[in-house]
Write a structure and sequence with these properties.
28% strand; five-stranded mixed sheet; 5 strands; alpha/beta; Glutaredoxin; globular
């Protein structure tokens, strides 16, 4: 079982405020989102205790998608202590994800 947090407008700011956080903007109908999900799930286990992993369903949390300028999905935002450090749109492989995760630890 993964330890990925579901973010909403109510908990977003609090969850990204401290430490290293990766936020996955996705939708249930999105094919590429389904392709990256197992990669993120595996990474959430590998980086447990070091990086927090979270998801935002753009259909349910439209304001968060707009405020983060998410135009395409999947989009991953990489935060360190509340500040966005990196962004990736589209599917990436495990190696590229690992490089980006290592950069925010």
């Amino acid at each position: 079982m993964s330890n990925i947090i579901i973010l909403t407008e109510d908990n977003y700011e609090n969850e990204i405020a401290d430490g290293s956080v990766v936020v996955d903007f996705y939708a249930d109908w999105c094919g590429p989102c389904k392709m990256i999900a197992p990669i993120l799930d595996e990474a959430s286990k590998t980086y447990d205790e070091k990086i927090k992993f979270a998801k935002i369903n753009i259909d349910e949390q439209r304001k968060l998608a707009v405020s983060n300028k998410v135009m395409s999905i999947p989009t991953l935002l990489f935060f360190k202590d509340g500040e966005q450090k990196d962004r990736v749109t589209g599917v990436i492989n495990k190696e590229t994800l690992a490089q980006k995760l290592d950069a925010i630890i």
